[in-house]
TrEMBL record:
This is Germ cell-specific gene 1-like protein. It is a multi-pass membrane protein. The keyword Transmembrane applies. It is found in: Membrane. Its main location: membrane. The keyword S-adenosyl-L-methionine does not apply. Keywords: Membrane, Transmembrane, Transmembrane helix. It comes from Leptonychotes weddellii.
Length: 106
């Protein structure tokens, strides 16, 4: 039967061996199994969280790169059009017909 153990609590503990030891020896593998399952669930949850974070980061970066490319393309096109327009404007002949000048002078 139980043996009285001294100390502050004065609790009763069963002797070594017997039903308690058999229950404890069965409980330890179960606890280890539960811990393993908990760790596996935690890893799975962490993997999902990391995957979601990387997915969000990838979408965000793709959107920003697309926007930057579109902006850069627009700026380059406008610069090119302005340059062509300015060159065309400068190359336009601005001569005045000398005969017309003579006509107005007379």
């Amino acid at each position: 039967g139980p043996v009285a153990v001294g100390g502050l609590r004065g609790a009763l503990y069963p002797p070594a061996g017997g039903w308690l030891q058999s229950h404890v020896s069965r409980a330890l593998p179960l606890q280890q199994c539960h811990r393993r399952a908990q760790a596996q669930r935690l890893r799975s949850c962490l993997h999902s969280a990391v995957s979601l974070a990387w997915g969000s980061f990838t979408c965000c970066m793709a959107a920003s790169v697309t926007t930057l490319n579109s902006y850069t393309k627009t700026v380059i096109e406008f610069r090119h059009k302005r340059k062509v327009f300015e060159q065309g404007y400068r190359e336009e002949p601005t001569f005045i017909d000398p005969e017309a000048i003579k006509y107005f002078r007379e």
